[in-house]
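P.,

For your records, the input lines for the assembly:
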Amino acid sequence: MNNFTELKEKSTAEWTALVNMAEPVIYLGMASCGKAAGADKIKGVILETLRKYSLTAKLIEVGCIGTCYLEPIMDITAHGNPRLSFGNIDERTADLIIRKYLVDKEIFSKKVLGHFGDKAFDGVPGFFEQPMLKSQVRIVIKNCGIIDPENIWHYIANDGYQGLNIALSKSPVEIIEEIYASGLRGRGGAGFRTGIKWRTCHDTEADIKYLICNADEGDPGAFMNRLLIESDPHAVLEGMIIAAYAIGAQQGYIYIRAEYPLAIRRLQNAIKQMHQHGLIGENILGSGFSFNIKIKEGAGAFVCGEETSLIHSIEGKRGMPRTRPPFPAVSGLHGKPTIINNVETLGTIPHIIRNGSQWFRQNGIDNNYGTKTFSLVGKIRRTGLIEVPLGTTLRKIIYDIGGGTQKAFKAVQTGGPSGGCLPRELLDTPVTYETLASVGSIMGSGGLIVMDQDTCVVDVARYFLDFIQKESCGKCTPCRVGSRHMVEILQKICDGQAEPEYLDKLESLAKLVKSTSLCGLGQTASNPVLSTLRYFRHEYIEHVNEYYCSALVCRSLIEYVVIKEKCTGCQRCVSVCPTEAISGPRSEPHNLDINKCIKCRACYEICRFDAIAGNAIVITSRKEE
Amino acid sequence: MYLMEQTNTLFDDSIDNFPMEEGSLIPLLQQAQAVYGYLIYEVVEKIADYLGLTTSQVFGVASFYSQFRFTEPAKHSICVCLGTACHVSGGETLLEAFERELKVKPGESTADKKFDLNRVACLGCCALAPVLKIDNDIYSKVNVVKLREIWSSYE
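Structure tokens returned:
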């Protein structure tokens, strides 16, 4: 009996006891997204409700299950029934749900999302039967929102560290070949075969090697890594130890954004637990293999997601990239062979080792095997984190899983600031590294931002280029100067001050920056511009020739107008206008002075949500005057 | 003055915990900022001495990263998220409303040193956009009308 068998027995006992516990258990989703939706307050309500009705129940804080649009989410196990999940709860309903269920044994059906049992359960659908979850294949995020991320026994009871235990009984070469055979490609975006990378590092002779987990999730609009680390930190750490064993690394680093304080705390806690149980440090699980992990907090620089910049940052230098080769797998941190893997790549490793490469290849198509997580956000009904097999079409992701858009769909942006905007005509594109690249975007780390008719693609291109220009490290001229010029041109287009020939200038500049920049940041910086010019050129032309922004976003091209026939004169807009642009006596249609109006949107919002008429203030964009 | 001496000891005591190598630079700067709230010139000198670097080398690194600040922070810190999801949901309008109401630009503090206004690239709560953070509290699905209510609750 080795150490792992003992750990496994203890964890199974603990998990079984929890599942069969006589007293009720309340699980509350407390990842950052849950907290943002008000989970902290709900926690107070739960404790207060239990006290008020003299109930005893165990409260467990879990991570996020991925259905962020249903946050805050609370699950309850009681009365020998399966675990029930309740969503979109607030302070009032939390109290009601607990009281009804624990005291009256009644299920508050308005807020129930589903049950987690194996069989049908009276009138309550299965949780994973929900439209957002039904067509997902959850491997990497399978424990997220289910287990307590701060309890190592929960992880071990749910297959945790079994992959590591298997890996340590094999040779490093066997592990590398298994990963190679699985076809796993880097989930950070570039899609390089993980097995090849590892093999290169393994075959390079050196006295010391390093493994770095890249958790510098810099893409604005993406949160796959945050969610995984906050909800299941051990999954990533287990992957790291397997990777270190395979390549022969003694020291590991997790480079993580300082903007993710909860994720950092979860990692620190998890590493401490691993030390207690011999899963890290000297002689891991009695195998003779030793490995340590340090957490390095990123200091805020998007370019540090690039491998060589990240290495410079860990070395205490300015995070600027260098030319490759040599690749980090040969000469990386402190000049030693270094493997840098993304959080999700590492989170996938234990599953491949445990189930084998053939099992992994069941999902996916054409050299794109396995599943990939995506953060589905923007103007879509069901926002959150999803996991689907590679090769799933954009249409299936956006409509079947995401529930489509409320207003007319315009575009989906993949790959963050390095990706492109794809139009409706391309919705049947299967999501693979190659197909996305062939239509002018990239896979990236998994951000999917859905845009509807109210999103202006020119403004979005300007937004991304502005971001890139601020984050460009300045080392190479094409990126430093080129991104700045592109922003200037895009700003002029948004302001209605562009000449028709600007579009061609913009396009050739974008191509130049793409082909001449030093690192990935500059090489992909043009994608938002080129893809929007390619699929939405008509919108650019409308901005330039007709001073018209159909999405009513570009500030210089729009005006706020009061529809006299609809305005009831309730004066709510008058009270919120910061520049006294709106005037008029009560009960009479108001006047809006466009010379004073700063287009702050306050009157528009209040007219929709707090005024009597509801839609008397509209935004228009002038067609050519 | 007493407080300054106290915090000095706090930082001086912890500096020895960091290995005397260049790789400790960023963690040391982060520690200094955690203790003092920003990077004070004297502390930067101390770090440079400890690691055998020049102060300009240290400032060269510190100024590269957006996390480090060189002026005293205000009492509360407002971070408006301008990630992509927040941008398409109107994050920019929120930032402007703060600029107007508090009469500051991003990166500045109000005259009474009560609020800092900052833009942040992404808080990772994209599913609840637009979001903003004041100190450690995250507010989701915010609009211009709700803003005043939110920031006026801070003393």
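Two observations worth noting. Chain A touches chain B through 66 residues (CB under 8 Å). The two ends of chain A are 84 Å apart (CA to CA).

Regards
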